[in-house]
Amino acid sequence: MRIGDDCFEIFITQDDFPAMASVGIHLAGIAHLRPPYEVERMDPSIHTLLFTSSGTGHITTEHGEQAIEPGSMTVIPAHTPARFEIEGDRWDMCWFLLLPAMHWNQWMPDVAEVRPTGQAPAVFHLCHVIDQERYLDASYPKASFQKLASYIELNLKANQPETPDRLSAAFAQVEQSLHKPWTVGQVANLCYYSEPHFYRLCQERFGKSPKQIIRQLRMDRARQLLEQTDWPLAELAGRLGFSDQFNFSNRFKRETGLSPSEYRIKHAEHA
Fold this sequence. Notes:
CATH topology of the largest domain: Jelly Rolls
Shape: elongated
Structural class: alpha+beta
CATH superfamily of the largest domain: Regulatory protein AraC
CATH class of the largest domain: Mainly Beta
Helix content: 40-55%
CATH architecture of the largest domain: Sandwich
């Protein structure tokens, strides 16, 4: 464990807020982190959630490493060993330890995940409000914790799309920007999966590796553009993410048995 002198955390405990237990929150905190920051949990018996408001970090589990970006919720089910580290010069987030015996279990994933959420700033702000309410009548924090629990439940339920949809959405984004030099890691981040987990899911769903899927998307688009346009091969190469037209031509011929020019002529003859 490494926690730098410039890091500070505000703890929200049941001693100060008895209402926490009634909504299934065991412990919570607000973290304003600066380098260095590295914390490891070996076998936590409790679920962990992080809502990142600003800055970045990353989480490492047995399934690989995932980036934690602003506007995200990180979900770590109980008994998942994990290491948390700061990326860059700051990481501002709030965290919650949820009781596994409560209703949270039904919405927990099998492995740690980082999911996008538009509510991260609101949850972060609400935690600061709760911190100030420790000095007020107990009815105030009780209402705030009920609202907080609603935010958590909403995000655990609403930000849990089916795996096929997440994969399809990621590759749809790739297809819209084939000119980019996509890496497997970048596409995995679109799904909020680690690379190894993303690779396994692609094999299970499509029977192909992520690289093969990206290559297939480029080849399918190449066929469409060769059939429907007279654009120069150099332009097609750029639009499809190839370094030059020779690289594009070689790859296309390897995949189809025809050069791009031959394919275009053959299609015109049968049109």
